[in-house]
Specification:
Layout lengths: L6 E5 L3 H13 L2 E6 L4 H12 L3 E4 L12 E4 L8 H8 L4 E3 H8 L4 E5 L4 H14 L4 E5 L5 H4 L8 E5 L2 H4 L9 E4 L13 H8 L11 E5 L3 H9 L20 E6 L6 E5 L2 E5 L4 E6 L8 H16 L4 H10 L8 E6 L2 E5 L6 H9 L5 E5 L12 H7 E7 L3 H7 L5 E5 L2 H11 L5 E4 L12 H17 L3
Helix pairs in contact: 5-10, 5-11, 10-11, 15-16
The structure holds adenosine-5'-diphosphate.
The site of adenosine-5'-diphosphate (ADP) has 20 residues, from helix 5, helix 10 and helix 12.
């Protein structure tokens, strides 16, 4: 797309807004930026952009920054009823997100990954597979590095591995990845999406422009996604919400499954197999995998398929997936003392992720949970808590909601800090137990982010483990 000389405004000056502004500048567009926040960091960024000749307003939005523009780029997380969005709509100005913008400038093929849980793990693993297979690979998107940072420089024989959140997908229109993965769709961010239907429709934007030769990679074991692959939104099981039908899929659907020998990738006995052309190719044994939990088997199947789209040899895939040790804060083994194991799953900000963590643990669990509620239904985990959890140590704003939702299933104790929570859990543990931080909530009520929460957990664990007898 030629944006040279076009007047474009970026709404929101976070990491991706800044990246979009720089890319627009490079493309020769007349860029301006508006952000209603105010902080020393924003002032610094404003100065930097002003130095490049980019007009920036912070502290408030004014209509003059939108009215006569030809395109508006909206950052993920900007409310759809925010003033600049309403002004743009009133003036008939197209509104797109940073991913869409980047895709206009990107010559490299794209593997895009979305889902409620597992995106970062699969994005990282897919990136590792492609790099090991000799591809010059850019791993970007929601994982940290903005797509706009790399889109212009990537060459046609490079590969983009792109993690996309539903907020980022909401800003896409013509985005057309070559391989699109949806890992799972569980209720997540329901506080920010009008409904589950809205959430699913947003997720499905990842494949809506795909065509012949592209791969839509879906989790067969998820009834909603299985239905999508069959006829794109046929009715699925009772109680599941279906989005409105729009069109049939013309891409090649590749499934992954832990239970059925599908076209795509599957488990048979202890073996992990790819089946692209009707012939099963063994990748490795489940017992060779370092990662724990069946959810990580799903992540491996999905990543192997993505690698396979780019013709990476099975032996290369094998080497990467068996050697992959996992990422910090995602079901991360921390330490053990006197037979009590500590696991840091701070990135578990949804009930779905905590469910998978509990399923992956065979011993009795002392669960540390709580934080800022994302509109989750904690009763979904009640049966598993009854079966596996000896005690829930509650932390943060969601404590009383979690306690009410799980009432009768286990014992509770409230803590005021992470150090206290870990100590309470340890006091109640006996040899063979597992202490799991899997909060099911965002961290912002007590911490800057999930990383800080996880580090605080690890520090508290170390204090206990290093204490002399
Ligand atoms: P995301 O980027 O989607 O948040 P991550 O890979 O960062 O996903 O993992 C977030 C949380 O979800 C962690 O608690 C992790 O253990 C859990 N998780 C990872 N993969 C899956 C999966 N396939 N299904 C369910 N939970 C998962």
């Amino acid at each position: 797309m030629n944006l040279k000389g076009k007047k474009v405004t970026v709404v929101g000056l976070g990491i991706s807004g800044l990246s979009a502004a720089k890319l627009l500048f490079r493309s020769g567009a007349k860029v301006s930026v508006t952000d209603n926040g105010n902080s020393p960091d924003l002032s610094k960024t404003k100065e930097l952009l002003n130095g490049m000749g980019i007009e920036v307003e912070i502290g408030a939005h004014t209509e003059g920054f939108i009215k006569d523009r030809e395109l508006v780029i909206v950052s993920p997380g900007v409310d759809k009823n925010a003033l600049p969005i309403l002004w743009a709509k009133k003036n008939g100005i197209p509104i797109i997100g940073e991913i869409e913008l980047a895709s206009y400038f990107c010559k490299a093929p794209i593997a895009a990954i979305t889902g409620s849980n597992g995106k970062t793990t699969v994005t990282t693993m897919t990136g590792e597979i492609l790099k090991a297979g000799g591809k010059n690979t850019y791993v970007c998107g929601n994982i940290g590095l903005p797509f706009c940072d790399v889109a212009m420089d990537a060459r046609a024989d490079d590969v983009i591995v792109l993690e996309v959140s539903s907020f980022q997908l909401a800003g896409t229109v013509n985005f057309k990845p070559n391989a699109a993965i949806i890992l799972n769709v569980t209720g997540n961010h329901l506080d920010k999406h009008d409904s589950m239907k809205d959430y699913l429709e947003t997720k499905f934007r990842i494949f809506k422009n795909q065509g012949k030769g592209d791969w839509t990679i879906l989790n067969y074991d998820d009834p909603v996604l299985r239905g999508v692959g069959a006829t794109f939104m046929t009715p699925v099981g009772a109680g599941r919400i279906n989005p409105t039908p729009t069109k049939g899929l013309t891409s090649d659907v590749m499934y992954f499954s832990r239970f059925k020998k599908v076209k795509g990738a599957f488990i048979d006995g202890d073996g992990i197999f790819l089946n692209i052309n009707g012939t099963g190719v063994r990748i490795c044994s489940k017992s060779e995998i370092c990662l724990k939990g069946e959810h990580n088997i799903e992540n491996i199947l999905a990543s192997a398929l993505a690698g396979s789209y780019f013709n990476i040899a099975p032996e290369v895939i094998r080497k990467v997936v068996t050697g992959f040790k996992g990422l910090p804060h995602r079901f991360e083994y921390v330490d053990s003392k006197d037979g009590v194991t500590f696991i840091n799953d701070s990135k578990s900000t949804s009930v779905g992720a905590a469910l998978r963590a509990l399923e992956a643990i065979e011993s009795p669990v002392l669960l540390i949970a709580g934080g800022r509620d994302k509109g989750s239904d904690f009763t979904l985990i009640k049966d598993l808590v009854r079966e596996k959890v000896k005690k829930v140590v509650l932390l943060g704003e969601a404590s009383s909601k979690i306690r009410k939702s799980l009432d009768g299933a286990t014992n509770f104790k409230e803590a005021n800090s992470m150090a206290e929570a870990v100590q309470y859990a340890y006091d109640s543990a006996v040899k063979g137990d597992c202490i799991l931080l899997s909060p099911m909530c965002a961290s912002f009520d007590m911490f800057r982010n999930f990383e800080e929460r996880g580090e605080e957990f690890k520090k508290s664990v170390r204090r206990i483990c290093d204490r002399p007898e």
